[in-house]
């Protein structure tokens, strides 16, 4: 047990208590951020005259040495330290002696951990944005390729009206665009530096908080020291945004599982993204899509957990907040993994265009268009709806599509039908006529695709 405190204690910490309290097993993940924060702190302490320039140089060299040694595997972060902050400080003192003992001047682990957590979250948001961008680029490519791949659009999982694969994928594109912008918003809102808030009430040293904030690329310092050390809103917001990303991935996975089923056969998931069965030789299962769908639960669980943890915490710092780390780390790692795997699965997937089109045709997805045809020939919509309903019944009876009825059969039910009905209800016509922005018609889709093209080129 190596602790930063102990002066006022007369007994050793019970081992179980030590283990229960320690966070090094997980907060070692942000050793880089911890060292980066310390370097900024020390730079500022020297600037305001709390440390000499020589002490600053010694401490910064020592910290950079620790960073290099951790990264090269020369030193190992061990559980003998309570947390990553203690580990770095103790190591520094071992390396450079007395100047190392000055590192923590004007700082508490409370503002230190608040800083580390923000730096870590910020770095991860940048990575998450990059992964989302890569996924959107894949989807954009598919949208460009499939503006004339017809498929049924569904409501209630019943075939409704024809759309295109481009349009269907475009729906998810919009979701991921919103996810991306949520991450940007969180970054901007959280980007204020808590360092210098001390344990809760600031410090008595003449700290230059503007300087540390700018050294660490924050927009500025936070404005209330009690809030600074106990604010975890950005964790809640991030876990909420990650949960929403998972909603979107999970819904898409659900569709992929359906499309990949023997009954649908709209797509084939590539062998490299599928798994087999230990007993049934014929099986090729969509496990990756199922796992992404499944992992959604643990991300929601983390959001619920952090909301529950935070709800009863009086100001300012309380140890409950140490719980934020495992929840955040696990959710970020889970979501990053899911986006990567999902992207790979989409890039390698085969789309069976003919099956999609046949399914749209055989599902009466052009029934609304047949009714609209009658309306254009002077039949009131409600009557047209009834007429086409009768035609659908006839088709069900004969096990054919609306396109396969003879003109006589059409005219028996309504003389308003002419031989241009076939053209009017052809899949291509049905989609092409829907050309207002946001609809599946090719011109409308091309407009959206060019908006997305520009959008993707502006992402940082
Ligand atoms: N491991 C702690 C956390 O994650 C660091 C802050 C400790 N502060 C304290 N006063 N015990 O929140």
Descriptive report:
The chain is mainly alpha-helical. It folds into three domains: about 100 residues, Fumarase/aspartase (N-terminal domain) (Fumarase C, Chain B, domain 1, Orthogonal Bundle), CATH 1.10.275.10; about 240 residues, Up-down Bundle (Fumarase C, Chain A, domain 2), CATH 1.20.200; about 100 residues, Ribonucleotide Reductase Protein R1, domain 1. A two-stranded antiparallel ribbon has the order 1-2. A two-stranded parallel sheet has the order 3-4. A hairpin with a 2-residue loop joins strand 1 and strand 2. It is elongated and about 100 Å long. The model has no long low-confidence stretch (mean pLDDT about 95). The site of arginine (ARG) has 11 residues, from helix 6.
In this entry the ligands are: arginine
Largest sheet: 2 strands, antiparallel
Secondary structure class reads mainly alpha
Roughly how many Å apart are the termini? 45 Å
Number of strands: 6
Strand content: under 5%
CATH class of the largest domain: Mainly Alpha
Strand order of the largest sheet: 1-2
Shape: elongated
Mean pLDDT value = 96
Uncertain segments: none
Radius of gyration: 30 Å
**Helix-strand pattern:** HHHHHHEEHEHEHHEHHEHHHHHHH
Helix content: 55-70%
Helix segment tally: 19
CATH homologous superfamily placement of the largest domain: Fumarase/aspartase (Central domain)
């Amino acid at each position: 047990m190596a602790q930063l405190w102990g002066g006022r204690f007369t007994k050793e910490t019970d081992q179980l208590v030590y283990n229960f309290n320690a966070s090094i097993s997980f907060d070692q993940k942000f050793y880089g951020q911890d060292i980066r924060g310390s370097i900024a702190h020390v730079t500022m302490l020297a600037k305001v005259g709390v440390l000499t320039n020589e002490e600053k140089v010694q401490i910064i060299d020592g910290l950079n040495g620790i960073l290099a040694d951790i990264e090269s595997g020369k030193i190992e972060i061990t559980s003998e330290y309570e947390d990553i902050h203690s580990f770095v400080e103790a190591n520094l003192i071992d390396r450079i002696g007395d100047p190392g003992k000055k590192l923590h001047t004007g700082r508490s682990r409370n503002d230190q951990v608040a800083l580390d957590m923000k730096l870590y979250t910020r770095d991860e948001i940048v990575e998450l944005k990059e992964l989302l961008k890569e996924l959107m680029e894949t989807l954009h490519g598919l949208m460009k390729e499939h503006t004339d791949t017809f498929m049924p659009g569904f409501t209630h999982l019943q075939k409704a009206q024809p759309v295109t694969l481009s349009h269907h994928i475009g729906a998810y594109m919009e979701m991921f665009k919103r996810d991306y912008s949520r991450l940007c918003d969180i970054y901007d809102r959280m980007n204020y530096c808590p360092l210098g808030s001390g344990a809760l009430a600031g410090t008595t040293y003449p700290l230059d908080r503007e300087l540390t904030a700018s050294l660490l690329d924050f927009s500025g310092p936070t404005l209330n020291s009690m809030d600074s050390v106990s604010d975890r809103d950005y964790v809640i917001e991030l876990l909420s945004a990650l949960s929403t990303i998972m909603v979107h991935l999970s819904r898409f996975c659900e569709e992929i599982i359906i499309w990949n089923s023997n009954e649908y056969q709209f797509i084939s998931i590539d062998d490299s993204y599928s798994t087999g069965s230990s007993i049934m030789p014929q099986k090729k299962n969509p496990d990756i899509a199922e796992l992404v769908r499944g992992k959604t639960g643990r991300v929601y669980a983390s959001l619920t957990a952090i909301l529950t943890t935070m709800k009863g915490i009086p100001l300012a710092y309380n140890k409950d907040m140490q719980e934020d780390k495992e929840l955040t780390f696990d959710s970020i790692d889970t979501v990053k993994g899911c986006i990567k795997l999902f992207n790979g699965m989409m890039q390698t997937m085969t789309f069976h265009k003919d099956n999609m089109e046949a399914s749209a045709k055989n599902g009466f997805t052009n029934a609304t268009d047949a009714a609209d045809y009658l309306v254009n020939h002077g039949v009131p919509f409600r009557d047209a709806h009834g007429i086409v309903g009768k035609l659908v019944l006839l088709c069900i009876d004969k096990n054919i599509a609306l396109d396969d009825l003879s003109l006589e059969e059409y005219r028996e039910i309504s003389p308003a039908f002419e031989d241009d009905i076939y053209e009017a209800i052809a899949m291509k016509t049905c989609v092409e006529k829907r050309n207002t922005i946001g609809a599946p018609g090719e011109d409308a889709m091309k407009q959206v695709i060019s908006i997305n093209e520009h959008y993707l080129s502006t992402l940082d």
